[in-house]
Fold this sequence. Notes:
By secondary structure, the protein is an alpha/beta fold.
Amino acid sequence: xxxxxxxxxxVRLGTHGENYGNWMSAPVFYMVGALIVLMAALCVISHFIxxxxxxxxxxxxxxxxxxxxxxxLNWIRRQYAFGGxxxxxxxxxxxxxxxxxDGKGTLLEIGCGSGALSIRAALSWPExxxxxxxxxxxVYNYSQAMxxxxxxxxxxxxxxxxxxxxxxxxxxxxxxxxxxVSNYVYHNINGADKQALLxxxxxxxxxxxxxxxxxxxxxxxxxxxxxxxEKLRKMGYQEVRIIDTAREAFGSHRRAALMMLGDSRMLxxxx
Length: 271
């Protein structure tokens, strides 16, 4: 297990002008910015209308608080940016370092977004065939075309394919892939049983295949993950472990929480 991890060299993405986007989506900034403008306008209007001074003061306080929020969100965005704080790359490296994959087979990424992790896997394991799957909703401005363009630019398009799909019901037969990975995806699927999503991801993994499924695993969303890990062991899964990626990738739970991923943990092992 350790041997496979040592052989994989770090990979740097985005050196040819690729667009990998950012985990802090642009629409969030638009909404916060619109709120600041609205509060500022209300503050100005209240100045000219008798009796509205208390509303103007309240609007000013809200605008100031929202401006602070905007600054915090902008800091988070810089931390995640490729060529900026590099936290996206750091998380990817930590995730792949716990995947005991020899690179001689097929790998599936569930929720591939801009294709960054899929492409990193393809560059890390030159013999691997990589499939990235995503729903590509409008929130993050990611798309299949973006993934394919990035893969071409990084020189791995012949070994990467990107497909539309739903993590709740994967459109693949049982035991299709040699490795399955996912990174901060499941918590975004509203109303879904998170442990059921994990089991669905593992359904398409071959016997003997490896997995590394990283997410913001809040107990109220995921339940008892140690209990779930023990359930997998009883089902015959091997080397099952829960990895504290908040500490390993971000350096501390406090810093991870500041970047909205305070419960970051990863389920890893072998089927």
